[in-house]
Amino acid sequence: MPQEELGGVHRNAPFDVSADLHELAVRPLVVVCAGAKSILDLPATLEVLETQGVPVIGYQTDEFPAFFSRESGLPVTARVDSPSEIAQIAHNQWNMGLDTAVLVVNAPPAESALPASQVEAMIEFAVEEAHQKGIRGAAVTPYLLQRVNELSSGDSMRANLALLKNNAQLAALIAIEISRFHPANRSI
């Protein structure tokens, strides 16, 4: 199941946790994404995933990507370098009766990724701006994403489109490998 990004724990709001994280803890599936939205609290998001027993597998990376950026400075649970390794991990996990998802983080392509420090500066600016304008609740995320796109002159949108394609390609390769463990006549 390819995704652009993962929800998570919101900055400055540790009790505002996206439902994505709970669902990963109770669904035996593979999710491919480019990490959590960089506007979130990434260390807290990883802590919730660890607490919920969800492995975070880095595809050809040792570091949790920060959505628009290839780096966050945060480690993944394990690194793998092939779709077949991911399928094997998922197969083994589910055969052991662990019904959590396998979260595969796939860094955005290097040619479209944005430097983490640049993205962080834009996010901090947009967060402060949202606070000053009194933007709260469900309106915060769309506001921040739009402002980051404006501040990056559209580079964040280009990175978003590239990582979406990248994630879909990897998810397709993983699905092929998983099908070797789960014939078509058997549900996954």
Task: Describe the protein's architecture and organization.
The protein is an alpha/beta fold and 188 residues long. It is 47% helix and 12% strand. It contains six helices and six strands; from the N terminus they run ββαβαββαβααα. It has helices at residues 19-26, 42-51, 83-95, 116-133, 140-151, 155-181, and strands at residues 9-10, 13-17, 30-33, 56-59, 78-80, 102-106. A four-stranded parallel sheet has the order 3-6-4-5. A hairpin with a 2-residue loop joins strand 1 (9-10) and strand 2 (13-17). Helix 3 (83-95) crosses helix 6 (155-181) and helix 4 (116-133) crosses helix 5 (140-151). The longest helix is centred in the last third of the chain and has 27 residues, at 155-181.
> What is the terminal-to-terminal distance?
13 Å
Biggest sheet descriptor: 4 strands, parallel
The tally of beta strands, per DSSP, is 6
Strand content: 5-15%
Quickly give the structural class: alpha/beta
Q: What would you say about this model in short?
A:
Helix content is 47%, strand content 12%.
Name the descriptors.
about 190 residues, alpha/beta, four-stranded parallel β-sheet, two-stranded antiparallel sheet, about 45% helix
Task: Describe the secondary-structure layout.
Elements (H helix, E strand, L loop, with lengths): L8 E2 L2 E5 L1 H8 L3 E4 L8 H10 L4 E4 L18 E3 L2 H13 L6 E5 L9 H18 L6 H12 L3 H27 L7
Parallel strand pairs: 3-6, 4-5, 4-6
Antiparallel strand pairs: 1-2
Helix pairs in contact: 3-6, 4-5
